[in-house]
Amino acid sequence: MSTEALRLWQLISPGLPVGAFHYSQGLEQAVHRDWIVDATSTEVWIGGVLWHVLGWLDLPLINRVHHAWLNRDEAAVDHWNSISRACRETAELREEEHQMGVALTSLGHDMDESLPESTLGFTATFAVIAANNGISAEEAMAGYAWAWCENQVLAATKLVPLGHRAGQLMLRRITTDLDEVVALAGRCRDEDIGRMAPGLVIANSAHETQYSRLFRS
Asked: Which of 89, 153, 188, 213 is the most buried (most CB within 10 A)?
């Protein structure tokens, strides 16, 4: 097994100390509003966000930051990081991107990773560390998407709730087309980055004032 594969596994591990388990990205509010009530509606929600948000925002940005960092174009890295922040429509999403970025940057320094001087969000930092370790842009996008799906399914097992067996079956179905999502992200033009999902934005906005909650977003 290659060192690159092992580094990718480490980067997408749920044990990575970046606090990903704190966030549901609106899923908690969707459950609270009864938009998500069972395994079927959970799968539709997570799959929809994967295709219509990650495929048009996070993954294309990882692709661009990865290539920019390989070329040591820090100005381009900063530019795409700014786009990433600008496309986080709510305070919770912006805070999530920032706090996880700070945590991954701190870990990166501890592991002697070469990182830009500017403060980056999680998405850009993930791409930079992937590039440092010889992980291809395609593998980085697939790994990021997999980790996001896994975290959403884990959140759903607590919130809906779902059994862990049902969650694993759902994760397998959702990620079956992961290669197609990565291919979509690879074809995404600069001007198409950042498509909006109104339901996701509403859920995240409402979650900011939800009285009782388990997650930060």
From this structure: 153
